[in-house]
Design a protein that fits this description.
The structure is a single chain. By secondary structure, the chain is an alpha+beta fold. Helices cover 46% and strands 9% of the residues. It has a five-stranded antiparallel β-sheet with strand order 2-1-3-5-4, covered by helices on one side. The N and C termini lie far apart (37 Å).
Length: 198
Amino acid sequence: MPSVKKYKICRRLGTGMFEKCQTQRFSVSEARRSTKQGRRRRTSDYGLQLIEKQKVRFSYGVSEKQFQNYVNKAILTANPATTLFQLLESRLDNVVFRMGLAPTRRMARQLTTHGHITINGKRVDVPSAVPAQGAVVSIRKGSKDIGPFADLEDKLKQYKSPQWLTFDAKTAEGKVTGTPVQPDPFLNFETVIGFYTR
């Protein structure tokens, strides 16, 4: 069972928030809880938009202030929803996660903060840093043998990174080859923009 905090977030925003909530045990627990509570009141449009906003923010693990900054940039563009998705996906911690170097974004953020990741050979410890298209993202030489990266080749045999990224487990190097596409269907970026522009 997930921690109490994560449990509450999953109950409010959906089981897709955390892997630990995507279990049969959690589903059974929620089904029993819903039966006891009976019929819920209909959520308002504002409430639904707020839930979608929180889903995206928690999924990428950014603070309210950071999220607001991303939204402000996105709103100035021709396609705010797509831009917001691309801004969040392009963060270094998310790139590390998408390359398969960490099982969760939270773990990817920790690996980045602790200085285990480099961009074009330079150590970077800022999770919100954005590797440019063509940039090489790799594991720092002195970190290649630590726990999270041990047996990386075996771990990534079945993993397939998104089309806009490449990663070679043998060299422990990856590359940003394009622009993020295809948002997670669990997240609704259009609704998030609607929340801020209502």
